[in-house]
Amino acid sequence: MASSSLQICALLLALAGFTTLVVxxxxxxxxxxxxxxxxxxxxxxxxxxxxxxxxxAVGSVQCKKFLYMLSSDPHIQACRALMITSILLGFLxxxxxxxxxxxxxxxxxDEDGKMKLTVTGGFLFILGGLCSMVxxxxxAAMVTAQFFNQLYAGTKYELGEALxxxxxxxxxxxxxxxxxxxxxxxxxxxxxxxxxYAYSAAQAASQPCMYPKxxxxxxxxxxxx
Length: 225
Hints:
alpha+beta; disordered C terminus; five-stranded antiparallel beta sheet; 5 strands; elongated
């Protein structure tokens, strides 16, 4: 019962991280422009992986998609690939984890098979969390390096809210995967201890019992006569 509860809690954490990373990938707030220090007419300017947006003085928001995806900077293209890979791994991990939960009757009915599916799902969650963590940290490092570089002639942006949201989602991803793996590890140890005890009991039962004769109760034929 405790193992099933741990698996459900771990899956919910991983699903929360999955949803957060989907929102982060589609967000256009990966980096924002401080309009108080830059000479721009917009109230705020932000940029994401797929488009950039700006808010005018009248309150309207105008977004423009990148015309050519391959014309973006190499680190942006790499971050796109890593985020998409993280989402695909999370989707596959969710399906495998649902099939491997002890409280579900979907798919395999064998307990060992379910345990293998759950462990695989947990490993994929961890791998997806690492992919998103690398992408977000790489993007943040590039923004920070451009901001503090005195020789950089382009527009200097600051870290946007989507990066912090992505870091939180990556942590939930990894934490959910670790808990899923640990729940099955504990079950494996329990089965090993039970099998070891059963084997010891069977081995003890198969051995013949030797009862030594007591010298006090043995009467020779000579003394009896």
